């Protein structure tokens, strides 16, 4: 099991990613997911269709709306949990390090 100081990790994020993480937690909470995963963060970052992420996707020939729809399907497949607050998944912690 990966041991991560989540507070320290979050302090190192730039404002865009920090806002995205807060939105990702909200997405996980609303869906009653026990973990915040990379897909929650990506979904949160896709909420602003004027963000640089949309430009990057477009540069690679990808559609943000299509990706968001695919992420919705992925997120619906995650198990629901009754925890008060979701925890950061190991995958997300590794991604942000």
Account of the protein in words:
It is a single chain. With 97 residues, this protein is mostly helical. It is 62% helix and 4% strand. It contains 6 helices and 2 strands, in the order H-H-E-H-H-H-E-H. A two-stranded parallel ribbon has the order 1-2. Helix 2 packs across helix 3 and helix 3 runs antiparallel to helix 5. It starts with 5 loop residues before the first helix and ends with a helix.
What portion of the residues fall into strands of 2 or more residues? under 5%
- Main sheet properties: 2 strands, parallel
The gross shape turns out to be: globular
Strand and helix order: HHEHHHEH
| Main sheet: strand order | 1-2
N-to-C span: 15 Å
Set down the secondary structure blueprint.
Layout: H1 6-11, H2 15-31, E1 35-36, H3 38-46, H4 52-59, H5 64-76, E2 87-88, H6 90-96
Parallel strand pairs: 1-2
Describe the structure in brief.
This protein is mainly alpha-helical and 97 residues long. The protein contains six helices and two strands; from the N terminus they run H-H-E-H-H-H-E-H.
